[in-house]
Each structure stands twice: as C-alpha cells, then as structure tokens.
Specification:
Organism (chain A): Falsiroseomonas selenitidurans
Number of strands of chain B: 3
Largest sheet of chain A: 4 strands, antiparallel
Number of helices of chain B: 4
Helix content of chain B: 25-40%
Keywords (chain A): Lyase
Helix content of chain A: 40-55%
Strand order of the largest sheet of chain A: 3-4-5-6
Protein name (chain A): Carbon-phosphorus lyase complex subunit PhnI
Shape of chain B: globular
Strand order of the largest sheet of chain B: 1-2-3
Distance between the termini of chain A: 40 Å
Number of strands of chain A: 6
Structural class of chain B: alpha+beta
InterPro entries (chain A): PhnI (IPR008773)
Strand content of chain A: 5-15%
Distance between the termini of chain B: 80 Å
Largest sheet of chain B: 3 strands, antiparallel
Oligomer: heterodimer
GO molecular function (chain A): lyase activity
Radius of gyration of chain B: 21 Å
Strand content of chain B: 25-35%
Number of helices of chain A: 13
Order of helices and strands of chain B: HHEEEHH
C-alpha cells in the first residue's frame, strides 16, 4: 500500500502539470487574462457568482480561467475561497424597487408606468453565428443614447396589490435562516428556500421550471416583471451604528404572476413566484421564480404532487457543488468496498451453484 | 491646526454627511481617490487600528421584492479603521478586495470629520468623485432609455 501511495503522488503531480499546460493551450496564442474573462465572458462570470454564492467579479473570472471554463468547477473554487474569509455581517435587504434599471420588461402590461426597457439582451437577435466576431479586431460603435426618463417604475406586483388582485407578501422582519451556517432541514421556510434556489444550479432549476409549465405542478405563470440593473448594498457596521453604502451590485429580479383559485380564507387572486440572482441571469431568475411558486403549493393549499412542488426533492438536489461532489466521488478509489462486493457476489454464485 | 492628542473627543459630525462621503468613497477606485488627493497638501500621518482586511457581507433580498428578508449570497468587502494623531478615528468599508481603497476611505473619513479640513477635501476629492459617479449613472440611464419600447396602436390597419 505504501508503494502505491508514493506512485500515486508522482502521477498526481504529473497530471496537474499536464492540466496546467492544457489550460494554457497553444502557447503561440496570447494568454487569456482574468480581466478579459471578467469583461468579455461576463455572463459566465455572473453565473459563477450566483452559484458560487459570492459576489466578486474578479474572483469569479479567475475561477472561470482556472477551471478552463468549467462553470461548476469554477463555482466550487469560489465556494472554497469564501470559507477562508471572516463574515462582517449581513446587509440591509436590497431595495430592488430603487434599482438603476438597465432592463425592465413586463409580459402582463404593455403600457406600464416607467415603460419597457430592453437593455443589452439576446432577445430579438436572430441566433445566427456572427463571423465578424471570429475575425476579431473590431469594436462596436457606441450604443445610442436617449433622454433618461425620471418617471418612477413601480413594481407590477404592487400595482396589482393596490387593486387587491395580488397577494401581499407577509410583513415579516424575522432574521432569516442561513443554510451556510445551519444545515438545511425540512420543512424549510420560504426565506431558506429562496437562499437555496438563489445558489442552485441554473440547469436543474430551468428543467424543474419547465416541468411546471408542461403540467407537473403548473400555475399558469406570467412574467409580471423582470428587472436588471444596479442596486446599492447598505450595511450598518456595529462600530458606526448607522447605515452606509458598500457599493452597487448588479442583480436580476423576476416576479412571476400566478393564478390562485382562492381558499376558504382567501379570495381568488394572483400570487407571486420570486427570483433574484447576482449579475445578469435572466434564465436563472425566471426558473427560480417558477420553482419558488411551485414550492409554495402547501402554503397555498394546493396538492403537491409534482417533483417541483416537493421541497425536499428540489432543495436537496439543486446545489451543483454538492451534487457534483457526490456524483464525482464515485471515481475515487473504492477498492475495499468493491472487494467486499466481489466476495458477496462470489459467495452468492457459489451457493446458487451448490443448490443446483 | 493644533490639537492635543487623545484629549479631544472626535468632533461630532452629522451622520448624513458621513454616510454621504463614505458611500461615495465606497464607489471610487483607489487610483481615482489617490489622484484627487494629490491636489491637496500631504495628509497627516495615521495609524491603522484594524485592517485593511477582506471579509464577507451576506447580501439579503426580500421575498417577492418587499416581503420577508432572505440570504441571497455573500459579497467580498474590505474594511479598515485608522486613527489620526489628534485621536480622530476613520472607517472605510468598501465592496471588493481593494485594501488601498479601504485605507484611503478610512483616512478620508477621519480627515473629513474635521470641519477645518473638510471644505478643501470636499471640493478636491469628494465632489469630483460624486460628479463622476453621477455621470456614469446618467450615461447608463441614457443607454437604457434608448432601448425603451414605444408601443403604438395600429389603428390605421383596421
């Protein structure tokens, strides 16, 4: 066994040296800098921040470079890094109503106060490969500008709530649970569920959200509003005793408006599913909102029959760092386990043959 | 100006003023703060009380945008506390990992608490940084405005 371990170390060293070369790629080409990744692969960086559950564009870009573009590996690297840092405290809850909007669309109202702002979107592009980008060297002309509106952009959900048609959020100010401090236990309340979904895997939540649309726990969703832009992060350092801004971060928010047929205590009205993610992550915010609403089934007295409505199933499996850890651990040595399995199968075969 | 070290309690400064300059410094790059400071006489010596050190702040959101708070995810934050020779303590808390920015923010927070120093720093450092930040926000808003959809009803098609 000792010899095998030493051999393993040498092989691991050689494998990692090769990995570094493969990561670098063709040395005749210029090396990609983390700053370039941050600037030009911004949506990959945003996804790593969201799933790594740590807002720091520079670190996320470094993680993407180090992981050779493997975004789950990059999220894993970011999660590992954050464990080395102390926590100073928690921010004031973000006021997304005060967001400096880069994008704001609604699928429920054409003419909503504040208007529909497309922002830098892939929507309405033709999805044809642009070979100009393969040629490189060009820089796009300046984006057009127009007189900035000073009209407020109130939430669509608030407009509906004022008419009594949208269920209001419970006015709770309780300290939310934190699954990075206390392991998730079930049933998990909505703040805990939202935390788990916000750091959950985009692909997993996308598929679950899609499943609700296809009839597995559907609630007739409409995009009440999607907004993306910068919000100030407020924090009250105990030594100061007053709130200051730490800076601005970009977030994407999605408010899904869903049918609700009413219950004994509540009249028919709309209910909301909510998505909020770091960076520009519209698909993730929408998926999160669909799944958030599906997970409210029990609270709203709906039959929870579909996978997306079962919180233990959703929350235990949405974290891609946990999932990849458990799936990928299967490739680590299981020699002893397997030896005992071998013994078992041989014994069973022998007894079957003896019985013939 | 002459002050006896340790004797003077830190001057009482309006909280709103302090919130304003700390928020502006939190959004300014270290190089920009340092560049603006060069226009002024060299600042007096300061001693680091804590940091600069990088840590995390848990960013919170609200369910449905306006409901119960929940933990969205963490962000990196760098903080620093400094003391001037006259005993004034300044704090810097800035998003990200820039130790120099946090220390400059703390130093300026200490200096700005002195009413005698404030006007010069305000006009040479804080006001120009605030103007640059406002201009950046305005440019962003103008780009967004250009992508505003103007719906029109096609009555003439009937």
């Amino acid at each position: 066994m000792y010899v095998a371990t030493k051999g393993g170390e040498r092989a691991i060293g050689a494998a990692h040296a090769w990995l570094a070369e493969v990561r670098r790629g063709n040395p005749d080409l210029p090396e990609l800098t983390a700053a370039q990744v941050e600037a030009q692969l911004g949506l990959a960086v945003d996804r790593v921040m969201a799933e790594g559950s740590c807002h720091d564009r520079g670190l996320a870009a470094l993680a993407v470079k180090q992981a050779r573009g493997d975004l789950i590996e990059a999220a894993f690297l970011l999660r590992a890094y954050r464990t080395t840092l102390p926590r100073f405290g928690a921010s004031t809850p973000l006021d997304t109503n005060a967001m400096a909007l880069q994008r704001r669309i609604s699928a429920t109202y054409k003419d909503l106060p504040g208007g529909q702002v497309l922002g830098p979107t892939f929507d309405y592009t033709h999805r044809l490969l642009d070979f100009c980008l393969a040629a490189a060297g060009g820089s796009p002309g300046g984006a057009p500008e127009a007189e900035a509106s000073t009209a407020p952009s109130p939430r669509v959900t608030e407009m509906l709530a004022r008419e009594g048609l949208m269920q209001r959020e419970a006015p709770v100010e309780a300290e939310p649970g934190d699954l990075t401090r206390e392991p998730l236990s079930f049933p998990a309340d909505r703040p805990l569920r939202l935390q788990a979904l916000a750091r959950g895997d985009e692909g997993f939540l996308l598929s679950l959200g899609y499943s609700t649309q296809r009839g597995y726990g559907g609630n007739h969703p409409f995009v009440g509003e999607i907004r993306m832009g910068e919000v100030a992060v407020g924090f009250t350092p105990p030594e100061l005793g007053f709130e200051i801004d730490l800076g601005d971060i970009t977030v994407t928010e999605c408010q899904m408006v869903n049918q609700f047929k009413g219950s004994r205590t509540e009249p028919p009205q709309f209910t909301r599913g909510y998505g909020l993610v770091f960076g520009h992550g519209e698909r993730k915010a929408m998926s999160m909102a669909l799944v958030d609403r599906a997970l409210r089934a029990e609270e709203l007295g709906e039959a929870a029959t579909a996978p997306a409505q079962q919180q233990e199933f959703v929350l235990s499996h949405c974290d891609n760092v946990e999932a990849t850890g458990f799936v990928e651990h299967l490739k680590l040595p299981h020699y002893v386990d397997f030896q005992s399995e071998l013994e078992n199968v041989r014994t069973m075969r022998a007894s079957v043959e003896a019985g013939r | 100006m002459v002050q006896t070290p340790q004797m003077s309690s830190p001057p009482e400064v309006e909280t709103a003023s302090r919130q304003r300059w700390m928020s502006i410094l939190a959004r300014a790059a270290a190089a920009d703060i340092a560049g603006r400071l060069e226009a002024l006489p060299a600042p007096p010596p300061h001693r680091r009380l804590r940091g600069p050190e990088t840590g995390l702040v848990m960013v919170r959101g609200r369910a449905g945008g306006d409901g119960a708070p929940f933990n969205l995810g963490e962000m990196t934050v760098t903080r620093c506390a400094v003391r001037l020779e006259d005993g004034t303590v300044g704090h810097g808390y800035v998003a990200g990992r820039d130790a120099r920015q946090a220390e400059l923010a703390a130093l300026l927070d200490a200096l700005l608490q002195d009413p005698a120093r404030r006007p010069a720093i305000e006009s040479a450092v804080i006001a120009p940084l605030a103007a640059a930040q406002a201009a950046r926000r305005e440019a962003q808003a103008r780009r967004a405005a250009a992508t505003r959809v103007e719906f029109f009803t096609m009555t003439q098609m009937r």
